[in-house]
Design brief:
The protein is of the alpha/beta class. It has helices at residues 15-21, 45-53, 65-77, 95-103, 119-134, 139-148, 163-167, 173-181, 204-220, 242-255, 268-274, and strands at residues 3-8, 24-26, 29-32, 35-38, 58-60, 82-86, 110-112, 153-158, 184-191, 194-202, 231-237, 260-265, 279-285.
Length: 293
């Protein structure tokens, strides 16, 4: 069986990167002031960040059924017997359940995997899927393995501003106003596809330290005994300048020396919910052996 691997841009994998490594990537839609955009094709991070800073009306969406099945049909017409599709967690979007419903018509040739991940941890799952496929696993076996390892990852993010998340209803306007006056930064945790409050800190520097402490604790407890070359450390965010990105990546690398650290900007559909200036760090187990430094 020849098995293809497919994901979407919520994984942080770009279209160019996907082409380079043989991974099919579906760009995700975002609506700005009532106009439809497609990540990478008609929407860059720079344009989105400008719209976020201008407080425009921004709504993320899931791909249309037509766009999804069109890509599946294309993949299967290119000599693949089957494919495994790994979208963002069903706990954060309805796109996964929609895909599962559409896959029924493909008679087992399309396996939709819900391994409850997003962003940098979803990226690891996709590359693990590619590793499994290259080593002879079927789509059904890859789906089973990825879902078995779904909870072996943790993400911590800190928001620079509460403006966007207030619009989602996750925090009240009054609560956001108090937090802004007190310079409180919320630290959120994503694990198993659920977004929960983890802690809060006075100022971004303190928030950064709390996130790093959380990952250190995970490494000492949850991931104790796992070899470093099977643990992935991720840095992510919606920083707007190369200097800001470099500063955060260097902090993470210096904190976790001897681990493979990967950076990706948060996908446009994720950024639309958290706003600019967001910083994140993640840890998770990978099947493939990572090159460590």
């Amino acid at each position: 069986m020849k098995t293809a691997v497919m994901t979407d841009t919520n994984s942080g994998i770009t279209l160019e990167e996907g082409n380079r490594y043989g991974i099919y990537v579906l760009p995700m839609p975002v609506m700005i002031d009532g106009k439809d955009y497609i990540e990478e094709l008609t929407l860059t991070h720079e344009v989105l960040y400008k719209a976020l800073n201008e407080d425009k009306d921004i709504v993320s969406s899931q791909p249309s059924p037509g766009d999804l099945t069109e890509m599946w049909d294309k993949i299967l017409s290119e000599g693949y017997d089957e494919l495994v599709y790994i979208p963002m967690s069903s706990g954060l979007s309805g796109a996964c359940d929609t895909a599962k419903a559409l896959a029924i018509d493909y008679g087992g040739k399309v396996c939709v995997t819900d391994n409850h991940r997003i962003s940098i941890t979803l990226l690891d799952s996709v590359y693990d899927a590619k590793y499994y496929a290259e080593n002879g696993m079927s789509a059904a076996e890859i789906k089973e393995k990825l879902e078995e390892d779904a909870y072996l990852n943790d993400i911590y993010i800190t928001l620079q501003t509460l403006k966007r998340i207030t619009k989602t209803g996750r925090i009240t306007s009054a609560g956001a106003a108090i937090a802004t006056v007190l310079n409180l930064k919320p630290i959120l945790k994503i694990q198993g596809g659920k977004l929960d409050a983890y802690a809060k800190a006075r100022g971004m520097s303190a928030a950064e330290e709390k996130m790093l402490q959380a990952v250190r604790k995970d490494l000492e407890e949850k991931y104790s005994g796992i070899p470093k070359d099977h643990l992935s450390i991720g840095a992510a965010g919606t920083m707007e300048t190369p200097d800001e990105i470099e500063r955060w990546v260097n902090i993470v690398k210096n904190e976790f020396k001897g681990y493979k650290v990967t950076y990706r900007p948060l996908a446009c559909s994720i950024a639309s919910h958290v706003g600019t200036g967001t910083q994140g760090v993640a840890v998770g187990i990978t099947a493939r052996t990572l090159e460590i430094i």
